[in-house]
Amino acid sequence: QVQLVESGGGSARAGDSLRLSCRASGFMSIESFSDFAMAWIRQAPGKGLEWVSAINNRGDKMDYEDSVKGRFTISRDNAKNTAYLHLNDLKPEDTGVYFCNAVQRVSRENYWGQGTQVTVSS
Question: How far is Cα 117 from Cα 16, in angstroms, rounded to an integer?
Fold first, then answer.
């Protein structure tokens, strides 16, 4: 069973930066972190889940939700079993719980972390 653990959230002011990390573990013997596409999804207070960004298993294709383009950067280090989300020029509307999600490239099984809180004040 794949486990995902997010870290790096916290409180920030508008214009600040944060880096979120998502470390994966618990792979079956026949697979590795590089078999999973990774994504970040957030949930603002009182709202539903919102997809933020995704990166493919090789790390050479990234995609972003329009409101974070140019401000957030997704990356991964397959040697460290870790995905990252760099949040720059934070805005109060970026406040929420940020979850990482892993999708196995063949079976399409997906896994979620427990989330990390990001709070941005104006």
Answer: 15
